Amino acid sequence: MKLLSVVVALVATASTSAFAPAPMGTRAVTATNMADASEEYYIDGERRFLMNLVVLGSTAVTVGALAVPYIAFFVPPGSGGGSGGVTAKDALGNDLVAKEYLASKPALDRSLAQGLKGDATYLIVKDDKTLETYGLNAVCTHLGCVVPWSAATNKFQCPCHGSQYAPTGAVVRGPAPLPLALAHCDTDETGLIKFTTWTETDFRTDGKGWWN
């Protein structure tokens, strides 16, 4: 009977201890641990935000670097330039001086030079051994091949698809849909040959130049 009383007493003591409030020291430790965890989570969130910004910036730079040349590929070559024009250059990049150039070319010559935006452009020597007041962009208006001049046929003849142009650059035979682009050709006060943008009416079609 005494043994039974001892067992009941032990069970009652254990039950009372289980429901007893935790000591203040334990509560303080628990609260401190939660605060530390919260602070650690906040710091990790900041770091994640910064890393996301870095990744986003890197991705934008990479995509931009790839997209710019891709888009530029589909932009047709222009024949425009700044309002001050550009100096005509030979194949080696040397400036062309009108006096020297004309001395080295026969009458009615059509030779290539670097023109507006670096496009291959024909300089035209007239019968009187002076420069024509316009140059002709050598890029075919069909699919962009460089069109050579044929002195034998007195025409520009595209080797890619057979388009032909008159000495003025007007279309003689397709499939080219448009004439060769025009550029003004002048000599500045120092004797250099200059190309400037042609914004006036196209004298071959009596309409606005398609390159403007």
Write the layout of secondary structure elements.
Layout lengths: L1 H17 L5 H50 L12 E2 L10 H6 L6 E5 L5 E5 L9 E4 L11 E2 L4 E3 L6 E2 L5 E3 L8 E6 L5 E5 L3 E2 L4 E2 L4
Antiparallel strand pairs: 1-10, 2-3, 3-4, 4-9, 5-6, 6-7, 7-8, 9-10, 11-12
What does this structure look like?
- With 212 residues, the chain is an alpha+beta fold.
- Helices cover 34% and strands 19% of the residues.
- It has 3 helices and 12 strands, in the order ααβαβββββββββββ.
- The strands form 3 sheets. Strands 1-10-9-4-3-2 form a 6-stranded antiparallel sheet, with no helix packed on it.
- 21% of the residues are buried.
Q: What characteristic shape results from the CA principal axes?
A: elongated
What is the number of helical segments per DSSP (H or I, 4+ residues)? 3
Structural class by SSE content: alpha+beta
Main-sheet strand order equals: 1-10-9-4-3-2
Low-confidence stretches: 14-20, 70-83
Overall pLDDT, averaged?
A: 78
* Helix and strand run: HHEHEEEEEEEEEEE
Distance linking N and C termini: 116 Å
Number of strands: 12
Rg of Cα set: 41 Å
Strand content: 15-25%
Helix coverage percent: 25-40%
Characterize the largest beta sheet: strand count, sense, and whether it forms a barrel.
6 strands, antiparallel
